Amino acid sequence: MSAQHKHMISEQTVSKVETSALTGEAVEMFTSWSGPAGGNTEAGDAVEMFTSWSGPSAGNTDAGDAVEMFTSWSGPASGNTDAGDNVEMFTSWSGPAGGNTDAGDNVEMFTSWSGPAGGNTEAGDNVEMFTSWSGPAGGNTDAGDSVEAFTSWSGPAGDQIDAGDNVEAFTSWSGPVTA
Questions:
Q1: 46-56 and 146-156 as β-strands: parallel, antiparallel, unpaired?
Q2: Tens of pLDDT along 140-169?
Q3: What is the C-alpha to C-alpha distance for residues 116 and 7, in angstroms, rounded to an integer?
Q4: Distance between CA atoms of 122 and 116, rounded to whole angstroms?
Q5: Residue ranges covered by each domain of the chain
Q6: pLDDT value at residue 109
Q7: I need a labelling partner for 68 at 20 to 30 A (CA). Which of 1, 90, 114, 122 fits?
């Protein structure tokens, strides 16, 4: 009798509540990972990755929900764990889930990247790049929205890393979106 009773309990429904985009509930995801690059545990070098994502589960823009994404990644350049040089990348993105420009929502993107120039880890010279972008999600120029872009870049001139000379460039741009 007790065996039959246990079997009946295991089949009981715990909850009938379901998550749905129609009720305005959002999807959230978090991932963090760390481990040796290429499975090389002898060198002790690790790859680290972090991802966070949040947004409506069915892209329901009627509720004004937005998609947000954050990614951070770090690991050896070209998988070279001997030199210990790392590539670092950061990306942040935010915008309407369905590109709904009627509500005046904008897409914003930020990217930062740093790593050895040309994959040359021996000289230790790095390329650094920063990009920030903002503009209408669908290029809707009727509302008078503008595109703004900012870029900053620094690295060895002509890949000449022996002299240690660097090139630095800065670009900023703003104007109406051309349809």
A1: unpaired
A2: 555 555 667 777 776 666 555 555 556 666
A3: 61
A4: 9
A5: 26-176
A6: 73
A7: 114
* DSSP label at residue 167: E
Structure tokens of 69?
A: 């994404």
Q: Which residue has the higher pLDDT, 18 or 48?
A: 48
Nearest to residue 118, comparing CAs of 77, 73, 151? 77
DSSP 8-state class, residue 178:
P
> Scanning the structure block, which residue is given the tokens 């998550």?
19
Q: Where are the alpha helices (DSSP H) in the chain?
A: 2-10
What span, in angstroms and rounded, lies between the C-alpha atoms of 48 and 88? 10
Q: d(Cα 143, Cα 101) in Å, to the nearest integer?
A: 9
Residue indicated by tokens 């790049």: 129
pLDDT for the residue 15 = 45
Q: Which two tokens stand for residue 9?
A: 């309990």
Could you identify the residue written with the tokens 């230790």? 124
Residue type, 55: G
